[in-house]
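User
New here, help please:
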Amino acid sequence: MKNLLLFLSLNLCLNTIEAKDLLFDFDSHITIKKNFVLEDELGLKKELIPFKFGKTETSFNEELIHKIPPKRIRRIIYVYSHNKDQDFQEKLNKNRIDTLTRFFGKRIKNLKDVTFETIIVEKEHLDPSSFNGFVIVYELSARQNQMLFKAAMEGKRSGVKTGFVFDTLISYNYVVPHVYLDLTPKSIASKDEVNIVKSVLERNEWKNRLIVVDVTGSMMPYISQYLLWLKLTFDEKENQRFVFFNDGNTNYKKPIGKTGGLYFSGNNLGYEHILKTIQLAMRNGGGGDCPENNIEAVIKGLKKNSKYEVDEVIMVADNWATPRDVELINEVGKPIRIILCGTRGKVNVEYLKLAHKSGGSIHTIEEDLENICKLKEGEKLSFMGIEYIIEKGEIKPLILD
């Protein structure tokens, strides 16, 4: 099994890379499950590319892939049923990945910031009804996210559909358990993971806060529910400043430190000003790719609010969107408290590194990780079920033999 996993990871790298600047790290995202369940996610859509069971054949219309802007793709998941015939499985994996490569064509060079995962469905006996293929996970459009945001704030249905049409799987004889997402505001508000910002702020008594918020892509549900809570607890006398960033409006060059798309507000300006500022930031840009200008937003936010007392810098970030400008961290000069949204049980290690370098902390709906900066070379830590080690001054996942 170990050799099969190694072969899989190598093939996913070597066979998919036509542009030499790409590195697909499936090796660190392999999961073995008894069943594959398709789950809807807030702010995201999914496209399934099914293959005939045990075969390389697919009748998938590749034009559907061309309709998805590559820079909105967050993850690509390869799902397959483990076959005890290792040679057969190796060839099958290779050919399926080659087909995926052909579907993307030259556009594959735009996938360098995508997270690649593998789910191996392992059962006692092969199950021909078990889905085999790829799942493309991508952001809703800026317009769709604005519709969801508006509906959530007004307590109405959005009309935005995120589900998958299962008729296309009938010819494959696949049965895919599907957890549908209820997009009614009441249902969204009841989800603990959506209320993460509220939860973390309630259990940490941070004063004189500068809150730096990513308003791109799938962050919409988290922002809308935080604002609904803020409205109920709003105090214009509280020293709370905001920076909302959308990763550069329509600036597609996105130079480090000069990407822009930053919008400022504060409690002293009133709740309506905060709400309208977020809406403006969302309307003027939705990110367009996965990395974001988090650190630029922190630096500019501190400068903009230099006349106010700022004791705590709190970053509300998308776990799956890595900061593109970590190299600017030494210009911050303050610990960053990072609230991670959408972790789904996995934490982006780049945010752990950012918290470590800034002397800050990491917060999810489940846990708070404090005092990371006090860890010394060779020391280990555990967070959300994963072991990490400090190696050459950086946090790295601990790989066990």
In short: The radius of gyration is 22 Å. The longest strand covers residues 73-81. The first helix runs from residue 2 to 14.
